[in-house]
Specification:
Layout lengths: L1 H18 L11 H25 L8 H20 L12 H5 L15 H25 L4 H19 L12 E2 L3 E2 L2 E2 L3 H26 L2 H11 L1 H6 L4 H27 L1 E2 L6 H14 L5 H20 L4 H15 L3 H12 L1
Antiparallel strand pairs: 1-4, 2-3
Length: 349
């Protein structure tokens, strides 16, 4: 909880520095920095969602970027519907990319998404249903280990290829962008950026607390038993596939919430968010921070993404090599991540 307290302290200080201080002040925090910090918090929630299934259930998902992107696309669709006739082509019913492609009517899967309560529900349902269908088939067939990891990666890769196609109705290669406002308030207004920043911190807090309650409960203890000895857990009478499915679906919903908060802050969602590379980076965040700790996932996401922001400006071509080397070094020398190292130091002291 100390890490969450420090995050909230940083959120409050950054928000106050943005709203109360003049731009000429040395301590002023710009709106772009607020957006960047909000993006980090969304990534932290995504990392927590992966740590729940990887750290405590033993499922190395290489497809969690898919759930993140689906939640983002639902939010993007809602924001596109709020543009109305303010688009380039002035069509109140069809988004600009549909007008450009000579679509005559709004597809059925866009119906209703322009209403905020419906959009909120779909942000949970779309990733949740995909996770349920995929998980039900995979866990029922007792697919485990590296085979399951490959299947999750194939899932997100297939979705990426599908969303690149214009006929899918999601903007094709360009994705969804040019958002104007959220609930009638401009997305570029300082107050809106701060609100989204605070909401990202709140979502991270609630998601972390929910996962902490789960892993501390009987469900969490059964999950660890499945991770460490699945056959024995099945033998003593537990329906292992249902425990896996429940946590996998919940994890996907958390990832969808992270994606939904991410999109209005960065202003775009495109098929690149489905990239398997994003899921692999996510695994690195959790590994660096320390899996099966939850707070390690938060710390890893914040540290790695901050380092990425710094070094992509200094070493734009070499950063991916550094990221790969970091994962190898952590795997070899810090198998329990940064938090595992700190815990070991405390035990030695």
């Amino acid at each position: 909880m100390l890490l969450l307290a420090l995050i909230w302290l940083g959120v409050l200080l950054a928000s106050a520095a943005n709203l109360l201080l003049p731009e000429s002040s040395v301590l002023y925090v710009g709106s772009n920095t607020i957006t960047l910090l909000g993006k980090y918090l969304c990534y932290a929630l995504l990392a927590v969602s992966l740590d729940l299934v990887w750290g405590y259930l033993g499922i190395l998902s290489l497809g969690h970027a898919a759930f993140f992107a689906l939640g983002g696309y639902v939010m993007g669709m809602y924001l596109m519907r709020q543009i109305g006739d303010r688009g380039v082509y002035g069509n109140a019913e069809l988004p600009d990319f549909m007008v450009f492609l000579n679509w005559s009517e709004l597809p059925w899967f866009w119906q209703g998404v322009g209403h905020f309560p419906v959009a909120l529900l779909l942000i949970l349902l779309v990733p949740g249903i995909l996770a349920f269908v995929f998980g039900f088939l995979a866990f029922r067939s007792r697919v485990t280990g590296v085979y399951l990891s490959i299947m999750t990666q194939a899932l997100t890769y297939a979705l990426m290829l599908a969303f690149f196609r214009n006929e899918m109705g999601f903007g094709g290669n360009n994705g969804l962008t040019d958002f104007k406002d959220l609930l009638g308030v401009s997305l570029t207004a300082p107050g809106t950026r701060i609100t989204l920043f605070v909401l990202s911190a709140l979502a991270l807090t609630l998601g972390y607390v929910a996962c902490r309650l789960i892993v501390s409960s009987k469900l969490g203890r059964v999950a660890v038993a499945i991770r460490d000895a699945e056959s024995r857990t099945r033998f003593i009478g537990y329906r292992v596939e249902w425990f896996k499915l429940a946590l996998f679906v919940f994890s996907a919903m958390l990832a969808g919430i992270a994606g939904a908060l991410y999109v209005p802050q960065v202003g775009i969602i495109n098929p690149g968010e489905f990239s398997p590379l994003n899921s692999i980076e996510l695994v690195i965040w959790v590994a660096v921070g320390g899996r099966a700790t939850l707070y390690g996932a938060v710390l890893g996401a914040l540290l790695v993404n901050y380092a990425k922001s710094v070094f992509t400006g200094v070493l734009p071509d070499e950063w991916l090599y550094a990221l790969g080397a970091l994962f190898v070094l952590v795997t070899l020398f810090l198998p329990r991540g940064v938090m595992g190292l700190l815990q070991r130091k405390e035990a030695e002291a």
